[in-house]
Amino acid sequence: MPGTVVVDEAAEPTALRWVRYDAHAFVEHQDETHAVDELPLDDDGGVVWIDASGLANTQLLEDLASRAGIHPLVLEDIVHTGQRAKTDEYDEGRFLVCRMLRPDSEGIDTEQLGIWLGGHSVITFQERVGDVFEPVRGRIRTGRGRIRRYGPDYLVYALLDACVDAYFPVLETYGEALEDLEEQVLERVHQSQVVEILRMKRELTQLRRSCWPMREMVQSLIRSDDGSFEESTKVYLRDVHDHVVQVLDMIEGYREIVASLLDLYLSTLSHGMNETMRVLTVISTVFIPMMFLTGLYGMNFDTKQPGNMPELEMPYAYVGFLVVLGIIALLMLLWFRRLGWLGGKRDLP
Q1: Which is more confident, 45 or 235?
Q2: Parent domain of 330
Q3: What pTM, to 2 d.p., does this model score?
Q4: What is the pLDDT of residue 244?
Q5: Angstrom distances, CA of residue 165 to CA of 9, 94, 134
Q6: Are residues 303 and 178 both part of a single domain?
Q7: Burial zone of 297 (CB within 10 Å; 0-12 exposed, 13-18 middle, 19+ buried)
Q8: According to the model, what pLDDT value does residue 299 have?
Q9: How many domains does the chain contain in total?
Q10: Mind spelling out the 3-state secondary structure of the chain?
């Protein structure tokens, strides 16, 4: 049913923190009592940023949404964390969804970030505690940059910019990993390498799926005419759009490298198999004349009859036969080596 709030059982407990600031001062507060009525949403002094981390407390989220005038459909999108990056316009404000990315020991860690922009307040909804917004908080605390001189729309820009910038260090680790993997494949192929290649391919596809809608979302914000964003802020949103495009270009570049690495792995594996087959073929070819002569002299002709293998009566015939076989094998090996079939560089036709 539209507007129904159903939270995942694995959702973390909800924690609230807020900061209120203007050009001259700021106040930061960690709310442990969950007293929604005490949040400074009705104050006219400056910008209010409320951060809700964790989505387990549905009653708290509903109270916060009711207090801030957030539409029930927005609350539904907040708790359903599989949303694509998007922006929706409502009478009470504007809602944005994007994917927040952080490095993780097991790969990539993505979570949904919901941003509500209404009046002089900004409310962010995160799946769990911990984010990439410490640089933004630091600028608010110290008063560096323009953030305390601008309105809530500039804060939304700063949050989006922090989300997009968080992609770059993660992608840099992929670049370094791809370089190391390429050297390993060129040195010696191993089954674990193809597992790593496929893992990186899957994760890069996930990154592309997370980042691609953000480009459309930022474009919608730039083209919006509902007054949510000042024209001065849209200039900075264009910079965010450029960063998103740059991230997508990096992802596409790494996806191409992964595809070429997979081709290189299969080609190297095939080349190694061809080398093995060539060695086996050489060995088989060397033994062909030896087996022929062995089979020839193994026929049961009566040697006492004239013309029936008189060389078998020669002294040291057995030793001489072995020497002949050895000479044949040596000559064939030398010939194969000259052709480049046994080491060295093979002449192409």
Answers
A1: 235
A2: 299-339
A3: 0.77
A4: 94
A5: 31, 23, 13
A6: no
A7: middle
A8: 74
A9: 2
A10: CCCCCCCCCCCCCCEEEEEEECCCCEEEEEECCCCHHHCCCCCCCCEEEEEEECCCCHHHHHHHHHHHCCCHHHHHHHHCCCCCCEEEECCCCEEEEEEEEEEECCEEEEEEEEEEEECCEEEEEECCCCCCCHHHHHHHHHCCCCCCCCCHHHHHHHHHHHHHHCHHHHHHHHHHHHHHHHHHHHHCCCHHHHHHHHHHHHHHHHHHHHHHHHHHHHHHHHHCCCCCCCHHHHHHHHHHHHHHHHHHHHHHHHHHHHHHHHHHHHHHHHHHHHHHHHHHHHHHHHHHHHHHHHHHHCCCCCCCCCCCCHHHHCCCHHHHHHHHHHHHHHHHHHHHHHHCCCCCCCCCC
Residue 274 lies in a domain: no
Looking at the structure, do residues 178 and 77 belong to the same domain, yes or no? yes
Are 54 and 130 within one domain?
A: yes
Same domain, yes or no, for 206 and 306?
no
Residue 248 inside a domain? The answer is yes
- Give yes or no: residues 138 and 93 share one domain: yes
348 vs 25, residue with greater confidence = 25
- List beta partners, residue 87: 96
